[in-house]
Specification:
Shape: globular
Strand content: 5-15%
Largest sheet: 2 strands, antiparallel
Distance between the termini: 50 Å
Radius of gyration: 23 Å
Number of helices: 20
Strand order of the largest sheet: 1-8
Oligomer: single chain
Number of strands: 8
């Protein structure tokens, strides 16, 4: 139908729906959701660590995907109506830095300083806390959203942080930002604060070089530069971290200009599900030498504000990510696993093997094959027991649900992701990043339009940026050689 082809408030699909009654008639069994969710729980004190990734990897993955994978969920009253629509999305379907700039023009407007005064053109609103620049706070001392972020009726124009309640301990430390997930924890807020500083730095550079430009032009060009800079980091740092080969990818948009897969983005329900990387998150997080329960950092930016951006990045990079897979999610995220299983069922997502076939991969033929082989005796015993648990729940490996199968597979050698997730992320990484309108043949590929969209100075800034560290060193003090990377300092290729 027309709506099905055009209404992007619904997620797209990679495979047609496979409704439960039809699947049941074919002998498929769907075990109780709560029993399936138990497969994700890590044994107390026994989370497996990822040999390759620091916590900066899942923090960046969360920041990236929260910009375009946006299942329609809501806060409970009084901050929302509590209604969730897990077939629908609020996404713009683009890598557009919406956690920083907002999803809508109205949101962007209230986040902008909008001043034509010299030295202020093109800036995003910010505040100085000591010598550090951060986004402004969303809430005033009275616990209410500040009037500058509300419409005439007093309704907040920005998307309120998800999970917000009247008892949120860090309420007064939450920033006014473009995304309702950009305050999820200080790790994600740290990345957003970095990009706010970079936007304002770029605006200052553009204004100094073009004193006749007004606020609007400075803002728009700075935004163009930052979005492309962000995409470059996505490909050249993030995707190369995921990459298991010796070959390194570069963000060259020319490969997309005449590719068969070059099309407007429309995020799929499957992509939304495969990015639920809860098991990468450790139960406890070390900050300043103190072990803190992960749940305690939710919706609280006080550590970031206290210690500053450079220290925050060093602390995030100093924590090891845990391993992606079943039996490894922290207790405080098990409810999120239940929600994901429920969302997959609500959307009638096909089985795990259906997606392996769709990706041109061989289907797995047994539960031992699904969980993979290993020579480590402890891990071998765990996987054998996991295979038995899966068989007891599903009977046949053909019945294993997409969401469960994704994380039942073992992590690939020299990478942080299992086999099918790696293939699907790799496929979408280029077809969603390099198809950005700013990278099109008619903008980035046309010398005149490229100069108009970015300026030669802006293009030089993009060229010299390939990692988060590059942006951090020009927007912070006190890093003093401390390690900042998605890849662990002690990682060695196997």
């Amino acid at each position: 139908c027309w709506a099905g082809l055009t209404d992007r408030s619904y997620n797209a699909r990679l495979l047609p729906a496979k409704p439960y009654p039809a699947a049941e008639a074919m002998g498929t069994r769907k075990p109780p959701m709560k029993e399936v969710a138990k497969l994700f729980a890590a044994a107390p004190g026994k989370q497996r660590t990822c040999p390759k990734s620091t916590y900066l990897f899942p923090a960046f993955a969360q920041y990236l995907t929260d910009g375009f994978i946006r299942t329609r969920v809501a806060n409970d009253p009084p901050f929302g109506d509590g209604k969730e629509e897990r077939k629908r999305t609020t996404s713009n379907h683009e890598i557009d830095q919406s956690p920083l700039y907002g999803r809508t023009e109205a949101q962007t407007d209230v986040l902008r300083l909008k001043s034509d005064a010299k030295g202020k053109r093109g800036r995003l609103k910010s505040q100085m806390i000591g010598s550090e620049e951060f986004p402004p706070y969303l809430f005033g001392d009275d616990g209410k959203v500040k009037a500058e972020f509300c419409d005439a009726a007093g309704t907040c124009i920005l998307d309120l942080p998800l999970g917000l309640s009247v008892t949120t301990p860090g309420l007064k430390t939450l920033f006014a930002v473009g995304g309702d997930r950009a305050n999820a924890n200080p790790q994600v807020a740290t990345i957003n604060a970095l990009f706010l500083r970079e936007h304002n730095r770029l605006a200052a550079m553009l204004e100094s070089r073009n004193p006749g430009w007004d606020d609007e032009r400075v803002f728009q060009i700075a935004r163009n530069i930052l979005v492309v800079m962000f995409i470059k980091i996505v490909v050249e740092e993030y995707i190369n971290h995921i990459n298991t080969s010796l070959f390194r990818f570069t963000a060259d948009p020319k490969v997309a200009w005449h590719a068969k897969w070059n099309r407007p983005n429309w995020m799929t329900v499957e992509f939304s599900l495969l990015y639920r990387w809860h098991s990468l998150v450790p139960e406890n997080f070390s900050w300043g030498g103190q072990a803190l329960p992960g749940w305690q950092l939710t919706l609280d930016n006080s550590l970031l504000v206290r210690d500053g951006l450079a220290t925050a990045f060093a602390e995030i990079s100093g924590n090891k990510a845990t391993e992606l897979g079943l039996e490894n999610s922290p207790a405080f995220l098990l409810k999120a696993e239940e929600k994901a299983i429920d969302q997959a069922r609500l959307n009638n997502v096909a089985t795990f093997n259906d997606y392996r076939r769709a990706m041109g991969m061989d289907p797995v033929e047994s539960f031992p094959e699904l969980v993979g082989k290993t020579n480590d005796p402890v891990e071998k015993a765990r996987r054998a027991a996991l295979a038995d648990r899966l068989k007891a729940l599903y009977g046949s490996v053909e019945n294993v649900e997409f969401y469960v199968g994704l994380f039942a597979e073992p992590r690939e050698k020299n990478g942080p992701l299992p086999d099918l997730i790696l293939a699907m992320v790799a496929m979408d990484a280029f077809s969603q990043a390099l198809t950005n309108p700013l990278l099109s043949e008619h903008v980035f590929g046309d010398p005149g339009n490229r100069e108009l969209a970015f300026t030669s100075a802006g293009l030089a800034e993009i060229e010299r940026t390939g990692r988060l560290h590059d942006i951090l060193v020009r927007n912070s003090t006190g890093l003093a050689g401390r390690y900042v990377s998605m890849t662990r300092e002690d990682w060695q290729r196997d």
